[in-house]
Amino acid sequence: MIGKSWCCLLLTAAVLFCGCNSETANETVSEKVEEPAPQTIAVELQTSMGDIVVELNEQAAPVTVKNFLRYVEDGFYDGTIFHRVIHKFMIQGGGLTPEMEKKETRDAIVNEASNGLKNKRGAIAIARGENPNSATCQFFINHAANPGLDYVAGQNPGYAVFGKVVEGMDVVDAIAFVETTTRAGKENVPVEPVIIESAKVVSR
Q1: What is the pTM of this model?
Q2: Which of 103, 139, 159, 170 is 20 to 30 A from 196, alpha carbon to alpha carbon?
């Protein structure tokens, strides 16, 4: 027969093996449930071929996201087109009208391509000229992975990714397959304009 002292020792060992008593376990579960979900910013692009929702990464690209949101909230993108479409590369838009007229923009922003985000399929990045710090309003969505557009220290200034498509990648695919031509001196312009009918913040 096991004495009382041995019973106490076995009970203590059982509690230690468990790692916590029931009260502590309940507190742990409660703490996990109460943790707030991380906040995200999402923008919906309603196009003539369907809707695309992009989730913006404000933490990685604060300047680029702020710049993009200002254009969105001002209604700047409404009525612009995807004017450069290359299958298995990207679809670019946000700066020209269906008549191929360039819209007036704000000042250029600093290039945030060194933020660690990559130009993977579905990633949205800000377009720019030869000057790394020349980006304004135009953006592109990667139709395929494009590592050649990524930042490489001392070699490639890269193109700054600031979010990703979370809904409507099938729409991106459809746009990427449209027939293109040369218009107003620009190549890879869709024969039938692909219009961004509206751009709006849907969560923040």
Answers
A1: 0.82
A2: 159
